[in-house]
Amino acid sequence: MTLEKFIEKFVAEFEETPAELFTADTDYKKLEEWSSLTALSIISMVDEELEKRITGADIRNSTTIKDLYELSLSK
Amino acid sequence: MKQLTNTLQEMYGLHFRFVNEDDAQFILKLRTNPHLSRYIHSTLNDLKTQKEWIRRYKEREEKGEEYYFIFFKDKTPVGLNRIYNIQNKVFTTGSWIFDKSAPLECAVISALIVRIVAFEWLGMELENGFDGCHENNKTVLKFNRMLGLQESGKIIDYKGTYITMTLTKADFEKNKEKFIRLLNLE
Prior knowledge:
Chain A has helices spanning about 5-10, 35-50, 55-60, 65-75. Chain A is mostly helical. Chain B starts with 8 loop residues before the first strand and ends with a helix.
């Protein structure tokens, strides 16, 4: 999966935040909508789309969407 | 079947116990936070009133009608969740609210814990979310569906439309394993 496709899937896990606010460099945990339930959705999306298992610690240790994408691929 | 007792218990790295009057300030802090309380019933920001509410809750707890839990991560209180309206093997969950600073797994784990307590420890057979989830609370509605809850109707009040949902024990047991795997709780 390309980074662009990953961002597209990432955006789809948010319900309220406008899609144009998301780029590879978005510090996603600073978005107002970010919550533990969104985190679970992201973990689930990575599990389904990339067949990779990321953890809460992985999310804590990443800042941008690109960070999380690269970390997911490295699993 | 495990017994629910009025002591500090631990599951999946979270400690929990029944709330008591000493927790009133923490409950108020969360329930009067404008962002966190957007979709829950309003709470008067008054310590005395909150303590009185807890005293009345303790009577329901004593009768086995309701259990209100406070959760701790590394001895720090991080959130609340509640099983109530317990009758004829049917229950409701609610008052689910967690501090924004809590580690992100905590709220989800608490949602699993209250249902494990209800279905597996107390022998309940059905969760009936009769008072509903606000239709704009899309993140929670999505989470509920992931957990296996199914829509059962709609109610309308002054704050808008609420979606009522139910969860059978069988559906919870089927979906619980996915959460345990995703959260790396095995």
